[in-house]
Amino acid sequence: MDEQQAILALKRGDISGLEVLVTNYQVKAIRTAYLITHDSQLAQDVVQDVFLQAYRSIGRFDIRRRFEPWFMRSVVHAALKAAQKTARQIPVESENEAGLQGWLIAQESVERQVESAEAHEKVWEAMDVLSPRQRAVIVQRYFLEMSEKEMAEELETAPGTVKWLLNAAREHLRSLLGSERSAR
Amino acid sequence: MSNIHSALEYIARRDVPEEINLWPQIAARIERKDTVNMNPKLKLVWTVVLVVLGLVLATTAAYAVYRYFADPGLQAVNEAGMFTDINSTAQPTVLPIQTPDAASGAATVVGLEQTQNGVTMRLEWVSLLDPRQIFEISAQGLDAQMEFGMPQVTYPGVTPQQYGGAIFSLNDGPLVTGRYVSYQILRKDDQFGGQVDMQIDIPLLQRTGDELAQVANFHFDLKDVQVVVPNGWGGSNAYSMRVNGLEVRQVHTIVTPRYTEARLCYDVPAAGQSWVIRDASIQFSGQQTSGETASMQRLTQVADHEGQGCADVRFAKGKSPGNISLNITVNGLVLDNSQEQIDSTWQLYTGLVDDIQVARAPNLGPASTPTSETPLEAQTNGDLTVTLLSVYADANRLAVTLRVEGKAPDSYVSANLTDAEGYDINSSYGMGSPEGQPNLYILTFVPEDMSHSAAQGFSPKAPLAERHFEGKLDVTIGMMDGIQSDTAFHFDLNVPVYPALIVEPKQILTANGIEMHLEKLKITPSYTRLYICYKKPSPNDWMIGASSTLQIGPDEVHADSYGLVADSDYNTGKGPDPDFVSSTRTGRCVKLGYPVGHHNRPETLTLTIPELEQSLPEVIPDDQVKKAQAEMSAQGIEIDYVTFTGNGGGGGGPNIKKKPAGMSDQEVMRLFYAALGYYHPGPWVFTININP
């Protein structure tokens, strides 16, 4: 069955509809949650809970809306809350900063610095130091590839607010990657 | 395509394979209407427990009867009238989170006051966090020619590391208030937390013409101030920027409604040369708008040191209400007495700090005398109302009932419990709403029995060990976007704590070759915690499965919490548990919680454990899978088992290809796991007569 049929089936209490939705979205949802929580088991737990919540609240879902944004927003939120609960203070050791500084590439933007598997790993390590909120907006922007306008519409807030939040997250990521602008 | 996207895609694909399949677990949870996420894997921390309770509300406004269908423990105490009815409605306190990453830290009330040159300054509170240090002052008696200089803060015997700037944000008026924040790592002897001494010096300056001269210094000497290690990252600040090898740093900034002054230090191209800032400008921004740019009004060179140039740059523009950040642009350097210039632009910014949330915490040591308390900043949002309807506490858990009105659809409710001293209480926490009553919330807190030091921010003592619980419940109505303002509500709690009946049956039962020792039970009117130890069938992760039940009198429930206390095969556990010391030296000991308690009368308690259950490994060996597949095939069931490995890890999962008509996926999976030998049947049935 297609997605709309699956939702309609689920609204009637037919659990096979949920199976279709799980099959369609679980991988993307788990990957999104994982990028925010940095914990694969926690990400799976979060996504399970979100699917169950969707199952319980599907009656209120407007069939005219697209399911994916509605669902992924819940995933991002649930992952963010889970990450905040388990967040720990990561000391930014001076030797780590020195190592990152040593890797410094003189580029104009942080995006151009990320060009290799080694760089991918450094991004991943740097993401670990971001706060869960900052991690979440980075994931929305760069993994889910939402535009700032889409994020603003999705979050029902002004584009300027999204821009500000994203800027803060990028600045922090930039500093952790040891770029020319170091930040706190 | 953005390369950050590439990095995230790479990591996501590496660590979360395409073949992952949550459907069997989800279907199983729906099948058993399971709202408790008991992670089968070995976990040493409590996870959030979701409790769905069915309630029936009476139509009268004066009295509501709640029926806890899935929680006989709370149902019983409610019917017995042991809930403390409060029906207290709190006025909302909106704390706009203008710095979304601001971490709350414990503030220590100080209240020290001094008067010099007709100016009275009061040090209101300090909050020392590992990455950020804050204090707040108030002052009165300043005339129009007076202003404060940048505070100097030192920590005798401690050298902070990784300095990242400081900001002193002042507000005007007959009572001047100011908040100082510095960004640096504060650790005594490289240890997290602990206590430090602190010295604060705040100069008072007087203007005569164009000259500012210091006329007084307010000095505060504090002893043994607690340093807290917060969760998450607080504050947002671009301290320095390097362009073409030259760095400019925003060493510190004073922000007022009338002016802004920043000390900027910068590298010079060659030692011994005197370079100055050619031009600089600032711009304040709010959440949605940016203000006008203002150029520098005055530049005062500060003595060069260590081959760097420094200047205090003043701007005739200050902050306005609603501003959340300050951007500073340095446009070029020029060699003094020369035409040589460097045409680079450096951009720095600072998040304004007026709305960083700060919580209450214990007072200081003997060097200072707190005289009064400073209330937190508060604003109101009239549409949102939270009413605390009732509270119940016993030695095992605390439960509150809330009604939330005016809540937006895309918002959520969260809560935090603190003790009378303001320490967070480390507890697992569950929340549920009755079917059809989305405005009603039942929150249950089951405190950890492990004590945590105050440096970690948790209460150092067992919160429900006394006859009364006094503390605070903080409820937050948050927006799911994580950006819009949260609304906070604060309720003071002072309720009796019903004591526990401690039973140490020391019963040993053997079934199917496995000995099980029921060591201890802690039974309260609403909840039972028990400690049980057993020899495992093999050195693997054998658990007491979700099928175990506890019946007390007429009420029978499944466990809603599980914790590993010790396992001699893994040489691990949660560490010392003040409530329990095992009498066995080998095997495993676990702690289980059941939402049922005694009924204050003699009755029989029955603990039934049908089987032990082994947790699933990430990858099941092929020979075991083949053996199980052969067994299943004889029953008309075909399962593919997929395994995968990668740089970030691996895993596996079953795919059902064929099953008998009418058999559910959950039944198939259970047969599969039984064929793999992951169940060790009992049963073990303990029966105890209790007499509270």
What is the structure about, briefly put?
Chain A has 184 residues and is mostly helical. Chain A has helices at residues 3-11, 16-37, 40-57, 67-86, 94-102, 110-113, 117-129, 132-143, 148-155, 159-176; one strand at residues 181-182.
Description:
The complex is a heterodimer of chains A (184) and B (692). With 184 residues, chain A is mostly helical. Chain A is 72% helix and 1% strand. Chain A has 10 helices and 1 strand. Chain A has helices spanning 3-11, 16-37, 40-57, 67-86, 94-102, 110-113, 117-129, 132-143, 148-155, 159-176, and one strand at residues 181-182. In chain A, helix 2 (16-37) packs antiparallel against helix 3, helix 2 crosses helix 8 (132-143) and helix 4 (67-86) packs antiparallel against helix 8. The longest helix of chain A has 22 residues, at 16-37. Chain A is globular. With 692 residues, chain B is mostly beta strands. Chain B has 5 helices and 44 strands. Chain B has a 20-stranded mixed beta sheet that branches. In chain B, strands 31, 32, 33, 34, 38, 39 and 40 form a 7-stranded antiparallel beta sheet that branches. A 6-stranded mixed beta sheet of chain B has the order 1-27-28-25-24-2, with no helix packed on it. In chain B, a hairpin with a 4-residue loop joins strand 38 (561-567) and strand 39 (572-573). The longest helix of chain B is centred in the first third of the chain and has 13 residues, at 3-15. Chain B is elongated. The interface between A and B is large, with 81 and 77 residues. Strand 1 of chain A pairs antiparallel with strand 14 (240-243) of chain B, so a sheet runs across the interface.
SSE blueprint and pairings:
The complex is a heterodimer of chains A (184) and B (692).
Chain A: H1 3-11, H2 16-37, H3 40-57, H4 67-86, H5 94-102, H6 110-113, H7 117-129, H8 132-143, H9 148-155, H10 159-176, E1 181-182
Chain B: H1 3-15, H2 23-31, E1 49-50, H3 72-79, E2 84-90, E3 93-95, E4 105-116, E5 119-129, E6 132-140, E7 146-148, E8 152-154, E9 166-171, E10 175-183, E11 195-208, E12 211-228, E13 237-238, E14 240-243, E15 246-255, E16 260-267, E17 275-277, E18 280-285, E19 290-305, E20 308-315, E21 325-335, E22 341-351, E23 358-360, E24 385-393, E25 398-405, E26 411-419, E27 427-432, E28 440-447, E29 468-479, E30 486-496, E31 501-503, E32 507-511, E33 514-523, E34 528-534, E35 542-544, E36 549-552, E37 555-558, E38 561-567, E39 572-573, E40 588-594, E41 603-614, H4 622-633, E42 638-646, E43 649-658, H5 665-675, E44 679-690
Parallel strand pairs in B: 1-27, 4-23, 5-12, 9-15
Antiparallel strand pairs in B: 2-24, 3-30, 4-5, 5-6, 6-10, 7-11, 8-11, 9-10, 11-12, 13-22, 14-15, 15-16, 16-20, 17-21, 18-19, 18-21, 19-20, 21-22, 24-25, 25-28, 26-29, 27-28, 29-30, 31-33, 32-33, 33-34, 34-40, 35-41, 36-37, 36-41, 38-39, 38-40, 41-44, 42-43
Helix pairs in contact in B: 4-5
